[in-house]
Amino acid sequence: MNNIFFLAIQGSYSVLEVALYKNFTCLTKIVQDNFKASSTLIPIIQDLLHKNNLDLSDLSFIAVDQGPGAFTSLRVTISTVNGLAFASKIPLIGIDGLEALAAQAANELKNTQDQDLLITLLNAYNNDVYYKINNIYPNNYTKINLLLTNIKENFLNKKIIFTGNGALLHKDLILKELKESSQDIFFLDIANANTEQIAKMAKNIWENDKSKLSFKLEPLYLKSQNFAIQSKK
Description:
Blueprint: E1 5-10, E2 16-22, E3 25-32, H1 37-51, E4 59-67, H2 71-88, E5 92-96, H3 97-108, E6 117-125, E7 128-133, E8 140-143, H4 144-154, E9 159-163, H5 165-169, H6 171-179, E10 184-188, H7 195-208
Parallel strand pairs: 1-4, 4-5, 6-9, 9-10
Antiparallel strand pairs: 1-2, 2-3, 6-7, 7-8
């Protein structure tokens, strides 16, 4: 059986994380804060491959957080991997960042009950958030105040667990708005999906649905802002 080498990349915000995998086991990982993907990502990839005596041609695929995320970081990261795919004929696997973060959080919450509400929030800037609410509603984008108003109206007396950099950014506001409604509020300190989760989801696609492989990815920006929660009464 031939070895499967691949990269898992998280570059949707200001922290760059690049991991090299062999047969779905991480060989090495580089994490860099405040990165500029346009000048940093390619040298990091080259360094990882060189230190493991590999070339780009040895990679079976590249998995990357496809967004949503910070516009510039996400755009440059996706453009960079698209360039690698085009030049080296390496297929790409795009991973939805909200789905990956929610899955990672759920895995860490071993004692979560089915009735508990896991709300995943990523920062969309200007008091906007990208959100995922369990598997109840489609992932979307809205103002944080509007989201909290809808939560108060539709999810009274539920244990709510928030995670993601959007939740951490707006933690004080969330507590202020929801504590007044006697909500049971908790926070899980995960900013965004890590490369381990990206690799895990990519493994599933590689083994079970190669139709999702691509040589060009588009960033997931979730620009639709039609937030509407139907009452669960």
